[in-house]
Design goal:
Elements: E1 3-6, H1 13-21, H2 28-35, E2 51-54
Antiparallel strand pairs: 1-2
């Protein structure tokens, strides 16, 4: 189920991804940009009141993620 998110002062797409999905990994940020193509024209720090569609995304669990460097 997709969710509409309304940006607040200081929000960035990465922060919204982390806040909603708990991660910025696994294509989450890219999925947000795909669902909201007009975000590409926005500054990094979004203006308050921007409506963003948060698509259904399956984020990888920590134990499923591969760590190349420790």
């Amino acid at each position: 189920m997709t969710i509409e998110y309304v940006s607040s002062q200081g929000d960035t797409v990465d922060y919204i991804a982390w806040k909603h999905y708990g991660s910025t990994e696994g294509g989450v940020v890219e999925a947000i940009f795909e669902a909201n193509p007009k975000l590409a024209n926005q500054p990094v720090e979004l203006s308050p009141g921007v409506i963003i569609i948060l698509p259904d995304v399956v984020t990888p669990k920590a134990e499923e993620m591969v760590t190349l460097w420790t």
